[in-house]
Amino acid sequence: MTTAGSPDSATADQELEIAAFLRARPDFLDQHPELLKDLVLSHDSGQAVSLVERQVHLLREENRTLHKRLDALMGHARTNEQLNRRIQVLSLALLNAVGLPAVGDVLVQRLREDFGADDARVLIFASASITDTGPIVRFAGDDAAARQPFASLLESGKAYCGAVKAAQQEVLFGAEEAAASAVLMPLSGAQWTGIFAIASRQAERYRSEMGTEFLDFLTEVLVLIASPWVKRLT
Hints:
Blueprint: H1 7-24, H2 28-31, E1 41-42, E2 48-49, H3 51-96, H4 100-115, E3 119-125, E4 137-139, H5 144-147, H6 151-156, E5 160-162, H7 166-172, E6 181-189, E7 192-200, H8 213-226
Parallel strand pairs: 3-4
Antiparallel strand pairs: 1-2, 3-7, 5-6, 6-7
């Protein structure tokens, strides 16, 4: 064990001082080239190499690391660009759909084909001003029993990704449908709230660490589409 004042401790302190001095004077060896022949550097292979060769080796390693980071960043950028394009296509298709049943059909079809989802639902906690709403976009009215499983989610106003509770699954998909994981997005309209759910039969498809930035935009589109069909409170 090294203690204060021991030879090992003194040597370590001297090494730190030397390292600090060389960092502060990067041109020191240029001014004292005679020291280069006395310095010994070991390569990964165990062979002794010159200082210049070692510097080149380190620079190449740093270059490889930077290239890997750049490739990763470019990959993320391409993925985000593709995702953004698919969200735009979906949003335009929803806006062009005529009637809520058509909106539901477009939503499920595009989410299955472009986003790998197995199912989707829009549940609105208000009364509808029409009777033909369809099975995907549904109105639960002011029924507290249907709203209760989502109370904490609606209160937080934040999306949830992960396993679906049994009560939530029964309200959204029915007892016969198995949603192993889902994204639950709260909807907030004028005098009404709701849930936008995207489900998968794979337990690991939607996880808590997933980002939902692109889906936030989609929820705004759904609120815009659904609002005219919500029965206004008097």
